[in-house]
From TrEMBL:
The keyword Hydrolase does not apply. Residues 1-26 form the signal peptide. It comes from Glycomyces harbinensis. Residues 58-333 form the Fe/B12 periplasmic-binding domain. Belongs to the bacterial solute-binding protein 8 family. PROSITE patterns: FE_B12_PBP, PROKAR_LIPOPROTEIN. It holds the Pfam family Peripla_BP_2. This is Iron complex transport system substrate-binding protein.
Amino acid sequence: MNTRPARRTAAAAAALGAAIALSACGSDVADAGPAATGEALTVENCGREITVDGAPDAVVGLSPTQTELLLRLGLADRIVGQAQTATAPLSDDLASLAADIPVISEDTPPAREALLDVEPDFVYSPTDYEFTAEQGFASHEQLAEAGVAAYTATGGCPERRMAGTVDDLFTDLDNLGKIFDVEDEAAALADGAHATLDDVAGRIAGLERPTVAQVYVEGDALTAIGAGIEYDMIARAGGENVFGPEDPEFASFFAAQINPEALAAADPEVIVFAARDAEHEQTTRDYLARTLPEVSAVANDRIVVISGSDVYPGSLSNIDAVRAIAAGLYPEAFQE
């Protein structure tokens, strides 16, 4: 197989980028309890120690999925900025809560100056990429100098990107619940997420697992996903991944650009792909129909589409994506 590591523009959009309806894990917006004051708390995150002296009260979500989680924890009155807002819409029940929160970037992570201008004391990011100084973003060191705590979703930590799982979300809920003194609200979200995953597991128990490939298409470039949270989503949804971390092309990165012939040789029964929007969904469908018409998934129209934002690390939508994929793999099991 001729492969090369996918560039961030494709792989991140496949791993991160229109939203599937929220399931029980995110159906309610919590009311935040009073912030703890004067008590220092330290948590470990991405191999770093993050210490807060009392619950933060000037927070920035560095992507819509992070902003959503903060809102569902009941922290609307503590959010001073939202970023990358054009990459995914907030659900209707949250849009009004976020309407007055300053937008500090739309298509990319915020520039260092834009982030620091809103004077945050805590930022929550899907990956460490949002802290890349070479891109003009505020680095961990620069934020620390400004007194800002920077938290990366556990599944987006560099050392977890290859081995991350859906369960990493529960680590984030536990940590954020303690940091913001909203442990009851975090526990309620976790309980809802566990209930959704348990429901999926119960519905698909004992059923024959179809073979699945998760891909991302940008222009004529075809990228396969073979590790990380996306890989775990397929497994949790009851699919048998045709690409995996044991394959050499995924030894050091969760995604790799492949030739169409490689996907044809794997001949998955189902193809899953993440779409940025309706236009991107259609162009991907057109590419598959034009390039791989004889692949079983294409020939039998067994294609499952999820939102690009559903695969952002540290997102409640990770849970929704598992259910959506499972419903696509086993439609009979999800008929109500």
